[in-house]
Every structure is written in structure tokens, then in C-alpha cells.
Amino acid sequence: MLVADAQREVRLTFMGGFPGQVVSGTMWLVSAALGTWGSTQNAILVLVVGGAFIFPLTQLLLRAMGRRASLDPGNPLAGLAMQIAFTIPLSLPLIGAATIHRLDWFFPAFLVVVGAHYLPFVFLYGMWSFALLAAILIFGGTWIGVTMSGAFSVGGWFGGAAILAFAVLGLILAGREERRGAPAVP
Hints:
Layout: H1 3-13, H2 18-37, H3 40-50, H4 54-64, H5 78-85, H6 87-101, H7 106-118, H8 121-126, H9 129-147, H10 154-179
């Protein structure tokens, strides 16, 4: 399988990242809402613990939409997708250290980590839009962390909105490709 074919399968199977980003973006917004109107502890738990369920919920959403929920076993990018997924839980000690230092850095630290995690998606999906999303999350998290002392949930609202906006962009781009009717990758 050629790299371009493998990337195309990733794009079309995962709809340009749409279902995973809908799950993730929604989780960010729920966490931000809890941080705004509930407790910071619950906000943190939703994003940290909920993050473990993003992939299974993505697969569930794909199946509910009547789509297949996994790549062909011969797709060489399947391993890369799994490795990328593990970057966030492996970065939780860094997010925890930032949060212990300053509670208001929880969402900004998470934004930087999640933004960096989106960089390899450029290759995985073959979509440059993920580079833009990564830049927005990384620079947004840095800016919020440096300039907005005492605004715990701002980064959560920002992250949720950005991720959901790019979910729609990914859906549009993948939908256009799918409608062009190029033959599906076996």
C-alpha cells in the first residue's frame, strides 16, 4: 500500500478527524462548563479520565453513523495512530506539574500537549489543516497561560471551540474527497 493510499483510507475512514474531534471537543466543553459553574476538580477529572474514552467513543460514533470504525489491517499507518494516541496520557505528568504550580495552567498546559499531539496527524491523515489546528492550540494555550491569570476555564472553552471548528473543517474536506468518488482503498 502506498503512503498516499494509506493516508486516504485514514481520511475517509475517520472522516477527516470529524468523529474523534466531536468527541474530544465536546469533552473539552463539558470540562470547561464544570470549571466555570462547578468545581475545578470535576473539570480536571472529566478531561483527564474522559480522554481515555475518546477512541472508543469515536468508534461508537462511527458505527452509529453506519460507517466502519477501523482501518484495514494492512494499513501501515494503524501503528502510528496508536502511538500518537499514547502521547497524551504519557504527557499527563507534565500537565499535572503545571497544574500543581498554578491551577489556572491546567487547560493551557493541556492545549499545548494536545496541540503538539496533532502535529503527526498532518502525516497520518495527509491533511495540512492539522498543522493549523496544532498551531492554534499551542499558541492559544501559551497565550492564555501567560496572560490570563485567574481565568481557569478560558482555555477549556477555547480548546473545545477550536477542536469542534476543525472537526467541521475535516468533515467538509473528507466529504469532498469522498464525493469525488475515487476508488476506495481495499
